[in-house]
Amino acid sequence: MKKVIAAIISIILLLMLCTSLSFAENEYTDAQYVLYLGTNDQDTNTPVFTQTECLEKAREILIRHFGGYTIQEAHGGWIDNGTVFQEYTLVIFLSDTTPDKVHAAADELIETFHQSAVLIQENPTKTEFYTSVQEPAAAAAPALLSEYWTEGSAAAESLSAYIQSVTDENSPDFIPAEARIAVFDLDGTLMCETYPFCFEYMVFADYALNSGSDTVTDEIKAVAQEIMDAAGGKKPDGMSTRQAAAGAAAYKGMTMDELAGVVRRFKETEAWGFSGMTRGNAFYKPMVELLEKLQQNGFTVYIVTATERNIVREIIAGALNIPPAYVIGTEYGYTTTGQGDTADTDYTFQPSDRVVFDGSYSGENAKTSKVDAIVREIGQQPVLAFGNSSGDLAMEIYTISGNPRKSAAYMVLADDEEREYGDAKSAAEKEKTYAEMGISIISMRDDFKTIYGEGVEKTEMPQTEDEALAPAA
User: Fold this and answer.
1) C-alpha to C-alpha distances, 83 to 49, 74, 153, 244, nearest whole angstrom
2) What is the structure's pLDDT at 421?
3) How many domains does the chain have?
4) I need a surface site. Which of 79, 202, 288, 302 has the fewest CB within 10 A?
5) What contacts 123, CB < 8 A, 6 or more positions away?
6) What is the pTM of this model?
């Protein structure tokens, strides 16, 4: 308590000293009000909104009451009955106003953020509007995310602030480079999955129906045809499991290079539902910009997806600078050409052997399987996670739960019905659910200046049976 009193006395003496200073003629005496607004619910001690939503709601209230404000973001913590709590706090600075106006705004902030109180400090100050006679200061550094993101994008601003905070060695949120782990889903997060389904489904269907391979049975063709028949509609229930098993069987006996060739050729075909874009170019430009910006700032980026990892390695080749070892996904089983039925543990690889796919797969890498894979293959809790569907929720919740470092999770919402095949109503419902979980959103409609770049336009899906079954070019 003595230290606290001494600190308060020191501040008062400093303020008295400041009031004795002589300013220029355009000075005036004022009171500065500093508001400390917590964002944890007063009853549950859990976040009421995402950090992005907190800023937006506070800004709206402050603009309406004062016409201007300054906000700083802060993070605090305390122990209550042996439990450690952490809280995201907004520090609000107001000048040229009155106590009544401050209290009126505080009342609304308390109600909106479900707080018991807002801490208000009133500090006497002298203000001077100083006009420099020197050369104008250099322009501010450009925003970290700007090329493909809309101006004023809430997601871009929060991501830029996060990157700057955790890479600043003087910041309390600083994260050393070796702990800057970011995980991205693939389909619907980094690249298109609406033409009409994810890349893996479509390359399989094309191969099964058009290759003439002896490994493609009637049962495999039936799964491929089911995918084609559903084009432009809802994905059939249980398709993920059926497609994974059928794909593994169809590619049986192939080497990894041979499967890569199948994927590479399919990447060169035109993306259904769009003009001016091949399937291999169907990456979201803003998300690629974000991924590259993270890498430039010392983050190690992994792809963690339900798509088979060998297929993913070839999908991203030439588009993303992700080493093959940093791709985690569903995985086909392997064998060698000379092994026969001998178990791996009983067989020694021979110089004449080739590694080929054995027709099996290890289970879909979705939901909590993604968490298992991260623990097993990365061995560190990520600090950033990006996804777009329920299959990514477990990975996102894992990233932000009990993390000793500043962490965040984002979901990409397919809410753009003009430039993409989004569903705004469904996206709005998902946004509410994500907010309750502490997950932020990236809106394709509101945050993406462009999705696929110039020259790409939404058209229509193939409608006829002949079009749907046409061989890949």
Assistant:
1) 21, 20, 36, 44
2) 92
3) 2
4) 79
5) 15, 31, 32, 33, 34
6) 0.70
